Amino acid sequence: MSQKYIKSQNKNSHNAKSYGKYYATAVYDNHFIGTEELADFIQQQASVKKSDIKAVLDELGAAMKHYFELGQKVKLDGIGIMKVGFSSIGVARIEDCTSATITTRRVLFQPETERVVVGQEKKPDGSVKQKYVNAITLLKDVVFEETHDNAMNAEPEDEDETDTGSETEGGNGSTQNSGNSGNTGNSGNDQQTGFGLTISTSGNGSATVTLNGSAVTSGASLSEDDEVEISITPAAGQVPTATLNGSEIELTEDGGVYTGNFAMPAQASTLVINTGTASGDDGLDKD
């Protein structure tokens, strides 16, 4: 089994960098997999009655809604973290910023990742350091296959989506500054809007920001939901932090290296990395 893709040409002439280039675009079957089919699949993998599996799946949505209303993030092992986000209309006075200004509501998804070794790097002292990327757990072993049978399976092109105001995560009240860079990202979809990412780094350690294994520099234009990866090596005895538009990014420590990731929002964003804050209550996920 494999994920199919087609080759599509970017015909948006407003972006000279990507205009005319060809990109791989995912295609899908028009049929959605529902609860019944999920229950069938799980029943074949585990010694559990289908009726019991379906009952659990039917309650999953209600359970997630319950915790979202409490301002909690929901983490499903092997899948990822889900949390509430929304857009709101910007107002001039703080007293006018109320729930009435909230517009689009959404569930933000941060997929679970795991480190995958992609090579080795020889250091000047002769030692060898492994090079790795963070692979999305659900996609780590997916095989991609070009298809020419795309008449029924081709996914419709996404329309441009521009959020007004700011996006706020449920639970912590942190606000993400809005702004559409107006650039066009490198994407297989024509008319795909890009958003600028400003990166600010401080501290005595080192940090890298990558997208699909390539370095991302401050001012880069990214597409919505691009999976950006962060790797931080802090100064000895110190703990790093990273925030996106004021909201903390969960970091995982392994062998002195802290890694994390985020999906690029549909707005211009600011990533702030501190590679060496004082140790203490850092709130990091060290599972």
Explain what this protein looks like in three dimensions.
- With 287 residues, the chain is mainly beta.
- It has one domain (3-30, 71-277).
- Helix content is 11%, strand content 42%.
- The chain has helices spanning 35-45, 50-69, and strands at 3-9, 22-26, 74-76, 80-88, 102-111, 113-122, 128-136, 144-146, 166-169, 175-176, 183-184, 193-202, 206-211, 214-215, 220-223, 227-233, 239-244, 247-248, 252-254, 257-263, 269-277.
- Strands 11, 12, 15, 17, 18 and 21 form a six-stranded mixed β-sheet that branches. Strands 3, 4, 5, 9 and 10 form a five-stranded antiparallel β-sheet that branches. It has a five-stranded antiparallel β-sheet with strand order 14-13-16-20-19, with no helix packed on it.
- The two termini are 31 Å apart.
List its salient traits:
287 residues; disordered C terminus; mainly beta; single chain; five-stranded antiparallel β-sheet
Task: Describe the structure concisely.
The protein has one domain.
Principal-axis shape: globular
Number of domains: 1
What are the secondary-structure elements, in order, as H or E? EEHHEEEEEEEEEEEEEEEEEEE
Largest pleated sheet: 6 strands, mixed
Query: Distance N terminus to C terminus?
Result: 31 Å
Number of helical regions: 2
Which secondary-structure class do the elements indicate? mainly beta
- Strand percentage: 35-45%
Low-confidence spans: 154-193, 279-287
Q: How many extended strands?
A: 21
| Proportion of helical residues | 10-25%
